[in-house]
Specification:
single chain, about 90 residues, alpha+beta, three-stranded mixed beta sheet, 5 helices, about 15% strand, globular
Length: about 90
């Protein structure tokens, strides 16, 4: 199950790579969504992922992707998208 791979990457990110984002990263919920091309996140910290894409990533790449996605709602990108009409 890809969810297990994602959770393992999140744990390493919290303990080793990005401990200062630990609370944010533990707030993420992973949802398998094959129609999603790669990874996506919404303002509620739900990370949608394509399991085939996740399979192509190394552990380190997956950590980077998870942190990248978590930063979108943290930096309020959804608010900016509303302002510009996206």
């Amino acid at each position: 199950m890809k969810d297990k791979k994602l959770r393992a990457a999140r744990i390493k990110a919290c303990r080793v790579e990005f401990p200062y984002f630990s609370r944010l990263l533990h707030s993420l919920t992973f949802i398998e969504k094959p129609e999603c091309g790669t990874l996506a996140v919404d303002k509620h910290l739900r990370v949608y992922y394509n399991p085939e894409f996740v399979d192509t990533l190394t552990h380190e790449q997956l950590i980077g992707c998870i942190v990248h996605e978590a930063l979108h709602p943290f930096l309020l990108h959804h608010e900016r998208a509303k302002r510009i009409g996206a």
